[in-house]
Amino acid sequence: MEVIKTVDLSKSYNQVTVLHSLNLTVKKGEVYGFIGKNGAGKTTTINLILSLLNSDQGTIFINEKEIKFQDQLYKRKIGYVPDVPTFPGYMTSKEYLAYTLDIFNMKIGDYNIKIQDILDFVDLPNNKKKISSFSRGMKQRLAIAQALIHNPEILIMDEPTSALDPIGRNDVMNIIYKLRGSKTIFYSTHILEDVERVCDKIGILDNGVLLVEDTLENIKKAYYNNKIYIETKNESKYLLEKIISSKLVENARIEQNGVICNLNGKIDENTLLKKLMELDETIVEFSKVKTSLEDVFIRLTNGKVT
């Protein structure tokens, strides 16, 4: 089932288009990483899905049903975690979650059991400590708890780890990992390491345009399947000169003690190895390079990771 789908979704601010005919699809049970630099249009997309903004054009579907800006009932199926959550500092975590249950008018037998279960899940203590004294990481875990308290089918998270230290980031990513398969998760980020850890599928957004959408494995194969590292007994700068003049590869550059390059599609790696030996190069290492999402992101956006 297609849980979230947008068709030709567009949005402008002051005659500047920030989202261009966005077409994305998130299937049931997927963890979808929505990647882009700061200002790419990620938060705008989330606000449109949540009807916090009205689109200029396009259609949004939740569970394969079209939603309108004025619709509200579909939001009961969604839990939302903002990038910078705010809370009434005078409450405890238990009091705040009880308040959230009241807002949803949840008909459950025992609030205390429900709240304790969710606090245990996000690893927060159930005590009299006020939220105002919580660390940034604790507040983020409380935001996840309130997003999950009504047992939604869909969890939407906007940059959930962007302001956290490494320990806080790890805590949040562990929660997402535990939720895999039981919830459909759509989360935006520019932290590529996190995406590689938990996501089933990714979409890369740049200046409001969705450049690619696929599984991480397929994207890596499509964009960097032919990346080779070559090291010989020759100095790397002389090896680079030979490789460039041979016109056998593309994007050759010095890396550590050797050269990294891309096959140009005219030859395979075995042919390249044979050609190097014909050029009187004594091979020390010849191997395919493991591709990272950062490599793909930089290639697609022609820029630096933010």
Please characterize this protein's 3D structure.
By secondary structure, the protein is of the alpha/beta class. The model has no long low-confidence stretch (mean pLDDT about 90). It has 10 helices and 14 strands. The radius of gyration is 24 Å and the shape is elongated. The chain is about 35% helix and about 30% strand. α2 packs across α3 and α4 runs parallel beside α5. β4 (about 55-60) and β5 form a beta hairpin. It has helices at about 40-50, 95-105, 110-120, 135-150, 165-180, 190-200, 215-225, 235-245, 270-280, 295-300; strands at about 1-15, 15-25, 30-35, 55-60, 65, 80, 155-160, 185-190, 200-205, 210-215, 225-230, 250-255, 260-265, 285-290.
CATH class of the largest domain: Alpha Beta
CATH level 4 superfamily of the largest domain: P-loop containing nucleotide triphosphate hydrolases
What CATH architecture of the largest domain would you give? 3-Layer(aba) Sandwich
With helices defined by DSSP (H or I, 4 residues minimum), what is the helix count? 10
Main pleated-sheet profile:
6 strands, mixed
Uncertain runs with pLDDT below 50, 5 residues or more? none
Determine the CATH topology of the largest domain.
Rossmann fold
Structural class: alpha/beta
- Tell me the fraction of residues in β-strands, as a range: 25-35%
Number of strands: 14
Topology order in helix (H) and strand (E) letters? EEEHEEEHHHEHEHEEHEHEEHEH
Q: In percent, how helical is the residue content? A: 25-40%
Please compute the radius of gyration using only Cα atoms: 24 Å
Strand order of the largest sheet: 6-7-8-3-9-10
Overall 3D form: elongated
Instruction: Give the tally of structural domains.
Output: 2
End-to-end gap: 33 Å
Please tell me the overall pLDDT.
89
